[in-house]
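In the laboratory, one determines a bound structure by crystallizing the protein with its ligand and collecting diffraction data. In a computational setting the workflow is compressed into a single prediction: the sequence and the ligand go in, and a structural description comes out. We illustrate the idea with oxalic acid.
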Amino acid sequence: MASLTKNPNVNKWVDEMIALTKPDKVVWIDGSEEQLNVLREEACSTGEMIKLNPEKLPGCLYHRTLPNDVARVEDRTFICTSKKEDAGPTNNWCDPKEMYAKLTPMYDGVMKGRTMYVIPYSMGPIGSPLAKVGVEVTDSIYVVLNMAIMTRMGEQAFENLGDTSNDFVRGLHSKANVDPENRYIVQFPEDNTIWSINSAYGGNVLLGKKCFALRIASYQGKNEGWMAEHMLILGIEKPNGEVKYVCAAFPSACGKTNLAMLIPPEVYTKKGYKVWTVGDDIAWLKPGEDGRLYAINPENGFFGVAPGTNEKSNYNALASTRKNTIFTNVAINNDDMTVWWEKLDKNPPVNATEWKGTKVNGPEYIAAGNKLAHPNSRFTAPAVNCPCISPEFNNPKGVPVSAIIFGGRRAKTAPLVYQSFNWQHGTFVGSIMASETTAAAAGAVGVVRRDPMAMLPFCGYNMGDYWAHWLEMGKVLGDKAPKIFNVNWFRTDDEGNFIWPGFGDNMRVLDWIIKRCEDAVDAVETPIGYEPKPEDINVEGLEDVTTETVKGLLSVDKDLWKEDAKGIHEFYAKFGDKLPKELEFELEGLEARLG
Ligand code: OXD
Ligand code: MN
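The predicted complex, in structure-token form:
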């Protein structure tokens, strides 16, 4: 099939990839519904995808991955820069020449007997000065169909690139034999290149997402004066119609999608507050003409964790999945070909197929201690489906950011919310983020790990240099910089129960944050930052939470923090002289204030 672009850089690279992988056939993806329908039919005829109930879930497809291939694989993810120190102590590193030499034979002829799909895509709205183009070649229809939801895919992306530019990210993916022993997810930031092999799971193979929009883009951002962050973007519309935008970074599976699509509690909706979703996972941020920081969501859909999503926890996410959505590794209700996952409702299907493909009696299977859906099972849903998608979603300029929020899952240390003293201190607050691990990444669950800015698995270069870039951006933005906050929805009582109700009620904390950005409310200075006066967190309409409860949620246990500071010293020590002096200074300041 003929190329869809005159761009010689794209064509040369695609020819090289064809010569390497030797597919039987090459299909350029133009993005048309017609072509996508042919691929959907083909995938359903081979069993790669399963068509779901056309009345209840129109346009929805089901896919199951191999049980060995259900999450991102951080231990097999590499940043290959010519100098090891440019990848830094938190990334796996390998010399690019060595890695190319190791992987090239694995790709040699890997697509024999298969079709290569050439996918042009834009990360960011077409025509946006903040958008970037990628081309992914893959032997997986599942990848094509997911990229069709997650990106602006097809010929239009080439229009953005033009006929001569070389500024596109080259992504080579082959599922090969889905062999976990030879699985590699490799970023070559100096070459704008990503090679992924032996996986067919989302985060490893939808190369526009984590690999490009975070790892490669963070590196590009450092060189080009912008930032690629693991952040949701939401707009809070106030009763006067004004919308304030905030970005928030949480480690994987801490409820980013839930916060992004939050429905405010009644005390707020009845006054006229509304929340608009711009993005649920990734933000690209760049200073605008007026000197403020602007954010776009480079993605075009949501690749969300299904279990736990329900009418109550996230009405908008669930609504987003009711048409044209791909479900991966959830359970099927064979009676009506719909889908089910843990906590969707209290009625697991009796006639079920669990995520690995075995027919089971759902309630009995669960009673025996099994899960019907994999804990990291996903929906890939188009952003346009979301009832609260922001009218600014496609705005090429992006949205102006008033606040940046960090957060994690900490049972005792971090209070419900605090504000940093300034951008430098805020950078410090982001750098000391920590959380308990979850099922989104392979490995142990429930272990506390440092996850600065929620970027630990996604920063495409040395995290010390990344912090320096943050500090630099603060200087560029000056007094127009967003205010920086930290939140923790996950404090527990002595029995291990969450104290704060979370979900829609997080609006009460966002309300304080917005008021702080507007200088409309006071704060109390504590050793760790500015905290609300307990009575300034609106608890009207809450059953179990009083101002007294909030007071407890805001308490700072100095001994725990002193212990934490020791851990931060250890963590910082890894970065040697790449650690910005400013952060060391902030840590010393914290310790001095703790006494
Ligand atoms: C994700 C993740 O899939 O952060 O978004 O793991
Ligand atoms: Mn994420």
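The mean pLDDT is 96. Keep in mind that any predicted model is a hypothesis to be tested, not a measurement.
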